[in-house]
Amino acid sequence: VLSLPIIQVLLEHGRYNLEGAQNASLTLTFFAVGLAGHAAVEILTRSFYALRDSKTPVTISVLQFILKIALSLILINAAFWGPRWGMAGLALSTSIAALVEAATLLLVLNQRLEGLQLRDLGHFTMRVLLAALGMGLAVLVVRLLLDAILVTTDPRQALGVLGTIAATFKLVIEMGVGLFVYIRLARLLQIEERNMGPVKRLLDRFRLSWL
């Protein structure tokens, strides 16, 4: 939801126009899809190393690499929602492959240990996804409202200094709304307090525990 505003604030200057920002924002969005997969792979592979098994993660990694190449050849020429994805297709193939690798490692590790409590993990993941979905919808509504008031997506007009200030102002508001909504939904959905610990400490430090 915030990929385009972030790219605009950071990169849309000089000859880098709105079209370039939109292309980069799609790539950023597709990379973001696989963040959870990349993070999980880092943890799960170390679990296998702790079991003195380096063969399994390496084998799965090689298969993931083959899958990524195959998906890249397909998605690089995909043309949904506009022109060909190109580089964005490579980002999406990387994310899909990472998610598949993480899921495979988790299933194999569960067979080895027989006690990972996947049901509890699934329930927790669903609550987090629901909170993230609510946050995304809230940010999208705020973004649409702000875009109607402060126009920073006119392809006929360069962003410029004032446009950059306006885009930054909008981004700060959108991020603030997103953070507020996510925290409220996380508490409403009873996501375990231990998982909110770092956020809670940060809010307490800035005297924002009322959130």
Structure description:
The mean pLDDT is 84. By secondary structure, this protein is mainly α. It is 75% helix and 0% strand. α1 packs across α2, α2 runs parallel beside α5 and α3 runs parallel beside α5. The protein folds into two domains: 82 residues, no CATH class; 95 residues, no CATH class.
Write the topology of this structure:
Layout (H helix, E strand, L loop, with lengths): L2 H9 L6 H16 L1 H16 L4 H21 L11 H27 L4 H32 L10 H29 L8 H9 L6
Helix pairs in contact: 1-2, 1-7, 2-5, 3-5, 4-5, 6-7
Mean pLDDT: 84
The residue ranges in which pLDDT falls below 50 over 5 or more consecutive positions are none
How many helices? The count is 8
Which class do the helix and strand fractions yield?
A: mainly alpha
Beta-strand proportion: under 5%
SSE order, one letter for each helix or strand: HHHHHHHH
Backbone CA Rg? 20 Å
Total count of strands: 0
Overall tally of domains? 2
- The percent range for helix content is over 70%
Outline type: flat
Question: Sheet bearing the most strands, described?
Answer: none
Please summarize what this structure is.
This protein is mostly helical and 211 residues long.
Notable features of this structure?
flat, 8 helices, mainly alpha, 75% helix, 211 residues
